[in-house]
Design a protein that fits this description.
This protein has one domain. It is built from nine helices and no strands. The protein has helices spanning 4-18, 23-59, 63-68, 70-92, 97-103, 110-116, 121-134, 141-173, 177-199. The chain crosses the membrane at residues 43-66, 78-94, 114-135, 147-170, 182-199.
Length: 200
């Protein structure tokens, strides 16, 4: 596990998985624009916590459940698609930041973001590919899985933070309520489009 090539490979995998578009990153962009980076941090940490638990569960054998019972995977896909459509609607209909503040709108909580990972097929793909492709065969299973998952999370933090920061930068360019409505509508549609990835 101390091989430089191994660390480099895991880092590249992490960047490719967490830095590319997907449900989490689309929602982080919208949240960054509406609420700013600081208020989006619980969402970011929720994603990381949920993925860490998911990766550990896969390492301990939960991934085998999908192989033996495909219906479980299909059920997760349907649940994930429905929940993602709900989030897409919330994003698309979110009011501009000043009005949102008056109406008490809140970004996704850490708990909501963490739970979402268990119905997010991209998180499952990441977890299964991470464990299957990079888990060392020697040493303690728990230690290896923990180190591997934490390193993935460490690299991923910077990648998903960039999406929230990108949203925050866009938010500073939106000066009118109409511009915000258009932006929220586009982000809502982008989130809804991720359903295609889930159901594929």
């Amino acid at each position: 596990m101390t091989s430089l090539a191994w660390w480099f490979s895991v880092a590249l995998f992490s960047i490719s998985m967490t830095g590319t578009p997907g449900p989490n990153n689309v929602m982080l962009t919208a949240s960054g624009a509406l609420y700013g980076y600081r208020r989006t941090l619980p969402h970011i940490f929720g994603i990381m916590a949920g993925c860490f638990v998911l990766f550990m569960a896969v390492a301990l054998g939960l991934g085998v459940l999908f192989e033996r019972f495909p219906v479980v995977q299909q059920a997760l896909k349907v649940i994930g698609a429905i929940y993602l459509l709900y989030l897409a609607w919330k994003i698309a209909t979110a009011p501009p930041p000043d009005l949102a503040a008056r109406e008490g709108a809140r970004p996704l909580t850490a708990w909501q973001a963490a739970v979402f990972q268990f119905v997010n097929p991209k998180a499952w793909v990441m977890g299964i590919a991470l464990i299957a492709g990079f888990m060392p065969h020697q040493g303690s299973l728990i230690v290896n899985a923990t180190v591997l998952s934490l390193f993935m999370e460490f690299v991923g933090f910077f990648c998903i933070s960039c999406w929230a920061g990108f949203g925050m930068a866009i938010g500073r360019l939106l000066k009118t309520p109409r511009a915000w409505r258009v932006f929220n509508g586009v982000m809502g549609l982008a989130t809804a489009a991720c359903v295609g990835f889930i159901l594929s």
